Amino acid sequence: SWAGTSLRFRPSDEELSDALQANAEDMFAELLVPGAYPPRFPADLSNLREFESFLKDLEPLNITSPDLLFLKGRYAQNSGQKDAAVKFYKECLSLWKAQNEPEREPVLLYLMGQCCEKENSEQAKGFFRDCIQRAGECQELSAKCLCELCGVLKELGEWGELETTAREALNLNQ
């Protein structure tokens, strides 16, 4: 009788590694151009159980990749653990810098700014400013950062800088 038997199918190490990379790439793509890429996430990482199961499956591989740190940061951020998210994003950023992948830096700066904007407006302001400077050709991300920065400047009561930033945002969107 099979009634009491449970089977667990474990993906191969290569499948797990590929899934990790695919999830990170899809999340980056979605942040840069929302809706442009249909998500192909092999696991629903917004689900606590699935994400923890995914992490558990990765443990034997002893992976310390920027993709894993990025996913952990996204999970922590979505779970309201903003300080932990910033820590993961900073670790991720240093690994990507070492791998010479500068195109990912503005996205991480944007996410760190989002994590800080309620508790530490000054730090969020710095992250958003850095993101705008490094976003380069990615106008969608620059526009998002400018909007977030305007909100932070309003919160800080920095009206002159808010006016300048708002004009910058208008110029970008024309």
Explain the overall architecture.
The chain is mainly alpha-helical and 174 residues long. Helices cover 68% and strands 0% of the residues. The protein has 8 helices and no strands. The chain has helices at residues 13-32, 48-58, 66-78, 82-98, 105-116, 121-134, 139-156, 159-172. Helix 1 (13-32) packs across helix 3 (66-78). It is elongated, with a radius of gyration of 19 Å. The chain starts with 12 loop residues before the first helix and ends with a helix. The model has no long low-confidence stretch (mean pLDDT 79).
Any key phrases for this structure?
mainly alpha, 8 helices, elongated
Q: Total strand count, please? A: 0
The shape is elongated
Helix and strand run: HHHHHHHH
Q: Beta-strand percentage?
A: under 5%
Average pLDDT for all residues: 79
**Helix vs. strand class:** mainly alpha
- Measured as a percent range, the helix fraction is 55-70%
Unreliable segments of 5+ consecutive residues: none
**Largest sheet, described in full?**
none
DSSP summary: helix tally: 8
Radius of gyration: 19 Å
**Alpha-carbon distance between the two ends:** 69 Å
What is shown here, in short?
The chain has about 170 residues and is mostly helical.
Strand-helix topology:
Elements: H1 13-32, H2 48-58, H3 66-78, H4 82-98, H5 105-116, H6 121-134, H7 139-156, H8 159-172
